[in-house]
Structure formats: C-alpha cells, structure tokens
Amino acid sequence: MTTMTTAFVFRALDPLRDAELLHRWVTHPKAAYWMMQDARPADVERAYMEIAADEHHHALLGLGEDGRPAFLMEYYDPAHRELVGLYEPEPGDVGMHFLTPATDTPVHGFTRAVITAVVARLFEDPATRRIVVEPDVGNTAVHALNEAVGFVPVREIQKPEKTALLSYCTRERFEKAVAAV
Questions:
Q1: What does the alpha-carbon distance between residue 17 and residue 172 come to, in Å, rounded to a whole number?
Q2: Residue 108 belongs to what H/E stretch?
Q3: DSSP H helical ranges for the chain
C-alpha cells in the first residue's frame, strides 16, 4: 500500500466517452450503494446523458496526477433533485455524491483525499453555503469520511430507494475539519 500525495483536477464527465469506464466503476460489487449493479453499458450512458442535460444535476471526473480518471463526483440542487420534499432546503445548499472505483492496489488516504477535494471544489463557489448528503444508513464507511471533513448527521430520511442519513457540512465546519488534520 502506498501513501496518498495526489492533487486532483476536475473535468466535466462526457457520457459518451466515459460510459465504458463508468460502467466498470458503478457495477463493481464495491459500488453496491451506487445502486447500478445490474446496469448495462447503455443504461449507464443513458443515466449520464440525462445528468448532462439536467440544469440541476452535474457530473465531473476527478483526474489524478497522471491525468487519468480517478473518481466520480456528482453535485445537484437539492431543492430540485434527490431530496425534494424530504427536508427544508436553504439558499446555498448543494447536494453531493462521490464514487471511488475499486482497485487491487489501495492507496492509504485516497478516499479521504477525494472527499476533501470534492467538498473543497464545491465550496470554491461562494454561493455554496452548505453541502447536503444522503448516504445509505448502512454505509458506515462513508459516514466516517463525511464526519472527517465536517459533516454533521441530522436525521434519517426515507427515500424511494433507501433509508438515508441526511447530513450537512458548512464551509466553517469543513475548514475547521481540514485544518485539524
């Protein structure tokens, strides 16, 4: 196992060019919480074409130092997607998902570096006041990562596809969490 030292660059996801890569990532058993285990390549392409056409939902790839895709990041307006009717959105709320692909050569600290980069990227926009996440209640690994970067659990919510743990992270909590490392 090596140690994490990578800085990431973000680029817009291209549903046509990136569908094969995404299909490998989202159908891997490690990505079970992504809920696309049985997706065919055409299903993945279609799903990301829909995101690309949606003004309230966006997908980016995080690229490693070598310029290769290293992770997937999605962000959305929770007043219009994912959490509509499940919580009271505030101005400046941004919803977020991220996926690190399975690997045979884990890098210590990689996933934490990814979530830190994703949250930092979202807070680059001065209009972003709070990041909202809704991972599956059973996804304890992501709950720990969320807490490490400043997310605070609020309550469980029932989504059509899962019971989720609604959590928030403010810019101040994020800055305090990453300064403590």
A1: 37
A2: strand 107-108
A3: 15-27, 41-52, 110-123, 140-148, 171-179
The pTM (predicted TM-score) of the whole model is: 0.92
78-105 tens-digit pLDDT: 999 989 999 999 999 999 999 999 888 8
Dihedral over alpha carbons 21, 23, 24, 27 (to 10 degrees): 160
Angstrom distance (rounded) from CA 111 to CA 1 = 14
User: Looking up tokens 């290769």, which residue turns up?
Assistant: 68
Alpha carbon distances (Å) from 154 to 37, 87, 97, 164: 29, 10, 17, 11
- Of 106, 120, 103, nearest to 7 by C-alpha is 120
Q: 170 CB contacts (<8 Å, ≥6 apart)?
A: 129, 130, 150
**Which residue carries 């996440």 as its tokens?**
133
